[in-house]
Amino acid sequence: MKFMxxxxxxxxxxxxxxxxxxxxxxxxxxxxxxxxxNSECTQSCSTFLNVKDTPLPKSTVSQHFRILRxxxxxxxxxKGVELQNKTRCAELKGKFGPMISAILQAYSAQHKSRKxxxxxx
Length: 121
Fold this sequence. Notes:
The chain is α+β, with helices and mostly antiparallel strands. It has 5 helices and 5 strands.
């Protein structure tokens, strides 16, 4: 049996605004995080092999999830060969208040605005 390293999840007190902003500064990562935040259950990484209709290599998806996890935004748990992921929004609300929700709302509004413009063109 191959030994798997434990996944790192920073304690809430070590999570920083800068880390969150960096993790959510990439369009693919913010899209992944938004989908996880809107999901009522955990999602496997393979769910995100196509983001915005663009296929992504497994290694790229793994890297995005690692950055989100190390920033403290998600919690991942191994289930067989898959990682099941969920947001840590409830844990982070006490320290960061509405900041994460505001970022997701701004992302959603921006995404809707771009969709409208592309349909008009």
